[in-house]
Amino acid sequence: MTRRLLPALLLALLAGCSSLPPEPGDGPGEPIADPGAIPDAEPRSEPKSRYGNPERYEVFGRTYQVLDSADGYRERGIASWYGSKFHGRRTSSGEPFDMYAMTAAHRALPLPTYVAVRHLESGREIVVRVNDRGPFADNRIIDLSYAAAAKLGMLESGTAPVEVRTVTPDRQAAASGAGSEHDTETGEDVTANAAEAIAADPAPAQPEAAEAVSYFLQVGAFREAGNARRLADRLQADAFRADVRVESGDDGFHRVQLGPLTDIAAVDRISDRLAEAGHGPGHVVIPD
Fold it and tell me: CA-CA distance, 66 to 54, in Å (whole number)?
C-alpha cells in the first residue's frame, strides 16, 4: 500500500500549491499597510531542492520541462497571485507556503531560483524566491505570493504585465535599493517584517521606469513562410476581432500573432476563443 501511495504523494508535492485547480475562498490575508516596507528576498547560493526538480513532469495532462539552469532567464508575460487558501500547504519544493513571504511559483525554473519581477505598467520591481510550481492556467508565467503581489501593486487587479529575470547573489549586491530586484525569500525575517507591516491603508512603492504595454497572442511559429501565411489567413477568416500579423525573425521563424490587444481581459477573451476554435490558447507576447 505504501508503494502505491508514494507516486501519488510525489505528484501532489510536485504540483504544489499554485497548481491546484481554482478553489472558492482563496484571497488575501491581513491587510498590509505599507507593502513597500516588506524586504525583498535576498538572493543567496542554495543547492537545488530535493523535491520539485525532475527533468520533466505532467500536470492536468500537459508535460512541462524543468530548466537545467536559470542563468540568463528573462521572460515577459502576465503574473497572477495566490494566498490564504493555500497558506501553510506544502509547496513543490517541500516547504510550507507562507503567503507573507516574498516567494513565487514558476513552471520551469529550478527550485529554488531568485528572480526580479518588474511591473511593466508601473515600473515597480521586487525580488522573490521561486519555491513552487505553477501557475498552470493559460497565459500566466508566474504566480506571486500575497505579500509579493501587494508589494508589486497588483492585488486589486489580480494580474499584471511583468518582466521576470533571474538574479544572482553577486548581481543583488550591486543593485540599488530595496524593491529593485527579483523573486526570492528570506524565510523568517521576511515573514516577520511582513507581519509588522500589517495595518490599515496601503502606501504605494516608488515606481521606476513604466512602459506602455501592448499584448499579442502567438498562435504558431513556422520555418516556412507559406505555412505561416496559411494559418494567418485561417485566423483572419475566423474573425477573432483582432489584427493578424506574421512577424519574420532573424532566427528564420515566421510567427503568427493576433494583436495588439489592449489589456489582459482582451487577451483572455481571445485566448478562450482560439482554444474553442481548435487553435490552442496561444502564447502571450509582450514586446520590449
Answer: 7
Element (H, E) at 235: helix 225-237
CA count, 13 A, side-chain hemisphere, 214: 10
Q: Residues 101, 104, 24, 88: is their CA dihedral positive or negative?
A: negative
Cα–Cα distance between 85 and 155 in angstroms, integer? 15
- Residue extent(s) of CATH 3.30.70.1070 domains in the chain: 215-285
Calpha distance 106→268 (Å, rounded) = 20
User: Quick one: which of 66, 28, 83, 38 has its CA closest to 193?
Assistant: 38
CB atoms within 10 A of CB 135: 23
For 104, left (φ over 0), alpha (ψ -120 to 50), or beta? beta
Tracing cell 533571474 back to the chain, one arrives at 166
- CATH for 215-285 is 3.30.70.1070
Residue 9 banded pLDDT, cuts 50, 70, 90: very low
Max Cα-Cα span within the chain: 60
CB count within 10 Å of CB 45 equals: 8
What letter represents residue 147's amino acid?
A: A
Q: Are 181 and 118 in contact (CB under 8 A)?
A: no
pLDDT bucket at 21, cuts 50 / 70 / 90: very low
Quote the cell numbers at residue 15: 504540483
Length of the chain: 288
- What fold, for 2-197? Barwin-like endoglucanases (2.40.40)
3-state secondary structure of 130: strand
Q: Which residues are paired to 127 by β-bridges? A: 116
Tens-place pLDDT, residues 163-202: 999 999 876 544 433 333 333 333 333 333 333 333 333 4
